[in-house]
User: What shape does this take?
Amino acid sequence: MKIQEADAKSLLVAQGLPVPPWEVAQTAAEARAAANRFLAAGGKQVVIKAQVLVGGRGKAGGVKLAGSAEEAERVAAAILALQIKGIAVHKVLVGPAADIVKEFYLAAVLDRASRRVILMGSAEGGVEIEQVAADRPEAIVTIPAHPLAGFLPFKARQMAFRLGLGDHLKDAVAIATGLVRTMHAYDADLVEINPLAVVREAGAAGAVSERLQCLDAKITLDDSALARHAGLEDLRDPDDEDPADRAAREAGLTFIKLDGTIGCMVNGAGLAMATMDLVKRAGGEPANFLDIGGGARADKVTAAMRLILADPKVDAILVNIFGGITRGDEVARGLIEARQQQERDVPMVVRIVGTNAEGAAVLLREARFETAATLDEAARRAVAASRGAPA
Assistant: This one.
C-alpha cells in the first residue's frame, strides 16, 4: 500500500528523522492560510506540492514555489485543478521552500533476491532513480542491513562516505539507521527519501549553517501486515487502487488480474496455483488468480464472480472448489445467484469435491451448470469453451 507524501513524512517524524514542517490543504484558501503562517515565521518562499501517488509531479506542474500568500492561493488553485497521469489532485502539501545546496537519494528497500533489507543511496538525488540506475549503475551504492541487528552505525558511516556526506556524518548516520528503523517499525517494503538534501539555514545574528533534511518521502507498506498497526489502514488512498483490487479487498478476496481469457475461482492459494498450471497445460491462459478462502459463503462467491466478469477478456470460467471448511452447497448457491445477476453470458465449468459435494452436485445439475469430475477434465473443458470448441 502506497501512502501520500505528507503521511509518509509523519511516519519519518515519529521515528525522529529531520523533516521540514508542512501543512496539508484541500482548498486554495487553506493553502493561502498555511503559506501565510510559514512566511510570517521568516520564510521567503513556500513550496506547494500535489498529493498524488504518481511520479513526475514536477514535470506535470504539480510542484510550484510561491513568494506570497496570494500567489500561494493562485498556485494551489491551479494545482488542485490538475489531473496528473489521470489522477485528480484533491489536496496539496504546503511547506517552507528549502535553500538546497546538494541533493542525494537514500532509501531502505526490501530486496527479495537476497532476502534482506538493503540501504540504497546515490549522490545524484532529486531525479528519477530508475533512470540513474539505467544510465549510470555505478552511481548507485547498496549496503545490506543485518537481518537481526538492523543497519549498524559502521555501515551507515560507509554509506555516508561513499555518497560524499563526510561533512554531515552524524546526521547521515542518524538518517540512514532511521530509515531502516522506520521500515521495521511499520512493516514497510520501501522507505525512500528523494531528495535527501543539504540545506542552507540562517541562524542567530545572520550566521549561516548547513544540515541534512528529508525533503520528500515515499513509503510503501505491506498490506498483509496492516492489521498489526492501528491507524495505518486509514492512510490508504482510494485513488491509487485499481477498482477491481479495491472490490476484492472489501470482499475479503485475494485477487490478482492476469492477461489470459479463462477466469479462475478457487479456494486456497496452492490449489489456485495448481489450477492455473493445469489451465496452461491444457493450452489456455488464466485471466486471474482468485482465492475465495476457506469457509466462503454464497455472498463471497457472488462477489468473486462479479470480479471475474468485470474483465472483458474473460470468455470462460473455471470454478475449482475443494470443500474442507468451505461447504460445496454454499458455493453452488453463490454460483447460481451470480449467474442470475451477471450481465453477459460466459460459459462456466464447475468442479466441487469434499464437504457437501453431493448437495452441490444436485443444485448445479438442477440449474444446468456444466460440471467436471476431475481438475484435468475441468481445465480441458474450460479451455475448449474459451475457444468456442466442444469439450
